[in-house]
Protein 1
Amino acid sequence: MTDAARFVVFDKVRKTYPGGVHAVRDLDLEIARGEFVTFLGPSGSGKTTSLMMLAGFETPSAGDITLNGKALANVPPYRRNIGMVFQNYALFPHMTVAENIAFPLTVRRTPRAEIEAAVLGVLDLVQLSGMRDRRPAQLSGGQQQRVALARALVFNPPLVLMDEPLGALDRQLREHMQIEIKHIHARLGVTLVYVTHDQGEALTMSDRVAIFRDGRLEQVGSPLDVYERPGTSFVARFVGESNQFAGTIREVRGEACVVELDGGWTVPAMLAHAAGVGARTIVSVRPERIRLSASEGAPARVAELIYHGDHIRVRLGAESGQELFVKILSGAAPEWLRPEAILRAAWRGEDARALDPSPADAPR
Amino acid sequence: MTGFLPKRAMGLLALGVSLIAGSASARDLTVVAWGGSSQAAQREVYYRPFTEQTRVPLLEDSWSGGLGILRTRVQAGNPTWDVVQVESDELQLGCDEGLYERIDWAALGGRDAFMPEAVSDCGVGAVVWSVGLTYDGSRLRDAPASWADFWNTQRFPGQRTLRRGPKYTLEIALMSDGVPQSEVYRVLRTPAGVDRAFRRLDQLRPNIVWWTAGAQPGQLLASGEVVMAAAYTSRMFAARRDDRRDFRVVWNGSVYAVDHWVVLRGSQNRDNAMRFVQFATRPENQSRFPTLAMQGVTNLRAARQVDPAVATSLPTHPDNLAVAVSLDVEFWVDNIEELTQRFNAWAAR
Amino acid sequence: MRRTLPQLSNWLLVLPLFLFSAGIFVAPIALMLLRSVQDPELAAAFPRTAAELARWDGQDLPRPEAMSTFITELRGVRGTDRISFAANRLNADISGFRSMLLRTARMLPQADGGDAAETLRRIDARWGERSTWTAMRRASGPVTDYFLLAALDLQRDDDGAVAAVPAERAVFVGVFLRTLWVSILVTGFCLLLGYPLAYLLASLPARYANPLLVLVLIPFWTSVLVRTTAWIVLLQRDGLVNGLLRRIGLIEQPLTLIYNRTGVLIAMVHVLLPLMILPLYSVMKGIGRAPMLAAMSLGARPFEAFLRVYLPQSRAGIGAGCLLVFISALGYYVTPELIGGGGDQMISYFIAFYTNRTTNWGLAGALSLILLLATGLLYIAYARLSRATGPAR
């Protein structure tokens, strides 16, 4: 028996393109059987390359990938038995829905009756039972997406890969499909590796999120982990929103610390990287964790109120020139919250994290 | 062109063709010949001196024959060509159809000043060319002397090249079979004679490489691909002179014909066109042409003034004329379609 | 009014092109094709004779009155272009008719007198033959099937029945079949050579694909004549190809690569290859890598993935490329003329021959019409076939 926690293993996997471009550097990652793992990162961060190496369409320059204990290095893609859903579905336009879905079974020389049963079952799973004789061009984007999904699942692969499968859908359909894919994953118990650059999608669907940056794995953890306890200032910025302030650590007490921000405020935070008193840091606070009041905290002026329906975004200007955003639920806005109002902003020490001082990336 | 197809419609057809060819307003005098070394010689002795002496600018063009091309140009009205060098069959057919202006022979020095084959109502003989047996003297020790030798693959092993088409080829086949020069067309006018010519070609078929462009026989001889050729004699002598080839021509049984200057009907440069024809047929101008082109000329006084060293290499030299056959224009006008069909059916077998 | 205005302006925008193509292209072609069924020359020169011949039952010889009508009319058109056109037309049917008619017109006595039939027979004995007069009856118009029959190696005999022409003159059916066969072979070789190349071009990144595409296009922009002549240099007995083969020891005696079918195929495939590659390339560019990757991820070996997924998707390109090459090949004659042997002429050679050389435009029109019909039928068959099996859209 192989170790269920080590179903897919990336071991020091590296991909270098001719000309010295490092697409992936020393990737170490273990994925458990049945897990839903999302590769998240901006474009060019190495997430798709890593997926393609797992699928067999790219060859690692160094390192090993194993699937269920077997090294994949010399296994061609068509023998890996991995289901894959492509960015633009890659449906075969000259085949009907049923023929598309039956394709992986016909290449495996499955008996016809079995194919028929499997196709019907999976059509039912993706709720396309009435569409079997249509051609892909006669389907909506969402329906095409379901066909691609059904085709990747019909041969019961233990591992399914999805490369930004929902990118072409509009927002409502995308959210609907997110839930549906999550349910199918839950029902089938298949291991799923999902690539996206949409952090909301990653948080909604995954058991674990692997965040890529410049070919490196920045952080791996549950959605809660990466949102609430980002390990780096990049993760804090990329996953959800955050206010980030540069400052210097003045005091360390166990996991807690006190930081003097460059604007002059002294604030509490949780120390989230290895550094001592006097080190530079970036303090990151989620906008919804900042409390506004008339009496407590640092003084600031309301520069702007932006109405978002379910919540209101408040842009504040501090005396030091620093700017911060605060999110308040629509119903919970106090009546003194008006433009130009002078008020005070504060947060609890456990809601702020003192992170590595790497500055934000240059605007892309 | 009257009757069932309306004249206007034919005009439209011709207009379509002429629009493609390029439209014309006030044009310079345009003279059209057959390209190659012959037209290069004409440029030297006719075109440039004509413009220098008359101050009439002259454009030149080249073509490769075809009465249909002339007919469409004339029927379109205002043809873009003025003077054209045509073959004898195009002269006769086009003259009957009224495609050419009449020639004023008095202005040319009278009909008697020219060889008889050069004189007609619609055109003036321009050059005399011929097709004859040719071989490379540096490759063949044993010199062939007649078309019978051309067929003798025992004495002269190797390939031969003939023009792909019935014209000259059938005459040559009959002469190789022992038909004397004077009898060729009498025999060819009978069905049995045509059969005899094709049977004779059958015998040589495995040894024949066909040529279609006049430059090919020289290349084939030079590369050793063939040992003998039925070729334009002028090109052979030009290769002798320019490329130092030891090409030799057997005049015995050569077939000669005359090309003519014609002026297309409706030419807007008619007067200058006629002046050019006069210029190009004057003895003092024509006599300079053979040295360059290795072709004969038609004005009798010009022929006498030709450099004697060159004269023996021309189809018009009396010794050469005596053993040659004059291409029978009427025979070919009557029979070119049927014999071309038959030739192609034969060649494809 | 509001809705017709933009429509009117749309019409005005295409009007110049419409007039241009109608005047330059459609009308001349239509007129040329019409020539294949018209027979105006004889009736134009001899209107009353033509009417007389139409009444003749075709047995023995026409009535003496018809003969003297003919003599009168012949005298009337002497020296005009009308007699020349009529003579050409009759000569197409019976070789030698042209000179016989013109000589007869020249030699006719000035005054009528005596037996008209005897007068004609004294000038040329052929006037006493029935076949001479049936040929004239066949040509008396205004419409005729003579040219269309001739284009199919058929003729009407003196009794009006359709019969095959003598074997030694039967050339066109063979040439049509040869034209089709050569075009099919050229199309097949172009597909075999062009498909992998187009695939390579479509799968390479643009920085490699674009220069290669230019290499494909350069010959496309070069004149057919230049390319054909270049092949003569390469393929001749002492040419580069034979020299190379001999130097590397593959052959001892030079191969005959030119002035035969081999040479024609080599040169035509080269000349027409871009027409195959370009549509294939554009279709393959649209397919992209994804379907092959998808098929392989689903378990198909590369060859099966290609056969079941890529090939069917590239079928539109195959169809367009084959159609372009095939139809272009049908009309070729410069390359077969210069590189082919005696048995390699294609039908366009004869169309050009009758159009330019002998001005037998009726036969040229008939050959063109048959070529056009054959091409049209093949195109319809292709369209049917691709609709029947293609994706339902």
Protein 2
Amino acid sequence: MALIELEGVGVERQGRWLIRNVDLQIDRGKIVTLIGPNGAGKSTLAKAALGVMPVSEGRVKRSSGLTVGYVPQKLAIDWTMPLTVERLMSLTGSPKKGEVEEALEMVGIPHLKHSGVQQLSGGEFQRALLARAYLRKPDLLVLDEPVQGVDFSGEIALYELIGRIRDQLNCGILLISHDLHIVMAQTDTVICLNGHVCCRGRPEEVAVSPEFQNLFGTLGAPIGIYRHHHDHSHLPDGRVMRSDGSVHDNCCGCGDEEGEGHSHNHDHDHGHHHNHNQGDRA
Amino acid sequence: MSLFDDFLVRALVAGLGLAITAGPLGCFVIWRRMSYFGDTMAHSALLGVALAFLLDINLMLGVFCVAIIVSLSLIALQSRKAVSTDALLGILSHSALALGLVLVAFMTWVRFDLMGLLFGDILSVSHSDLLLIFGGGAAVLGIIVAMWRPLLAATVNNDLAAAEGLKPETSQLVLMLLMACVIAIAMKIVGILLITAMLIIPAATARWLSATPEGMAAVASIAGMISVSLGLWGSVQFDSPSGPSIVVAALLLFLAAMAAGHIKHGWLAGRK
């Protein structure tokens, strides 16, 4: 039984489709990794799935009584609010005695219990947020770029931690990453998003070479490589090149069918196009 | 003859009642960066007073209603994005004040104590004012305590609160109502122009001295109570206006707490 199921979901704001025609399903015990360039609508999709952002079209089904743990992409705690790590743990729930210590132990920051959250480093803060979400014993964990501001070895450690949390809670996880090629190896489904779903598949293990086995032991690497299987690529000017070499205004063939009066061709000129404009101005 | 027959005792009790209530609410004003929003609501109070006289309703009720209307229209205008929020606040805040002043000047059949309205007249607090201050104050405090978790979660992060089922829109609305309530209560004590000071100065003082949000709320109440006592004492001692004296006392307390905070944690403690 799916924890969350999205069918043909689209979100439109101010005449622009941030995401459109997205299907997504998250099952108990499964990890879905969402990748895509900046502005691809990854956070929008997560918020639509959580019900934080209303959808403009399509259906979102959440199983009843779903407990959610959420680590938002941007969470800046204003320095005007005094908040210790310990107090952060009970922000939206009431953990029982000993549970806070256990959660902090699990993410490896038990010594920071009484520290102010504003004093934590990027990696420590992400771990604290992860501990807070874990404490809720969620059915569904939504992690929006949990490895941001963390170096590569820290990233690997966080992926190991997320894997352990999944094993302990047997929860579904929606993991958002801006890294287009390196994903968590335990991921069950990788979805590449760029306004629409460009492709989906499974990551390939990298732990085949002896060097990697030396690095990570026989357990295998916590990271995997994801090879994209697009039938198109996004050109810098926002247009799309199909695998046969032809250039179109948008992808998935929808441009041909929806040529008249539809706003659909706004769909795909985010990400790359945006970067291109910035480049022009610089 | 009861204790409350002394006007000075009534003034002190009224001030303490306001300080206890304003402390925790003031913390939210600081955390959510709503002090100009609060100022705008407070400035509309004069309009509320004028309308209350016109419609012959209770003064505090009039102030409460106008403050709500102003904040609702602010939220509505904000979503249209024609003017930036700070400009919008400036427009609403000063036009509400000007409109109130004009309306009051036209109502020649009522004698207004304009200075009292603008800067407070705590020494004229009556028995029924005391009842309203404590009734309203208790209601505000009760709601803050009962809704503490959703209010705090929504303040830390709107999306997080929404995702984990704590309805942040309700929190925003409730805070607005509470603010209107405190403005109505505080008008008589410190006056329209100084209400926001009673909300933010004790809370800012508490920031230097607390490690948790709950601690900060409690310390803010205490800092407010000390300011009221000190200010009233100074007002009697030096024959200074009571409302401004209370605010000056609050400022002195803030400076002392800041100095203490710096000595304890170094310059700009808590900031990265």
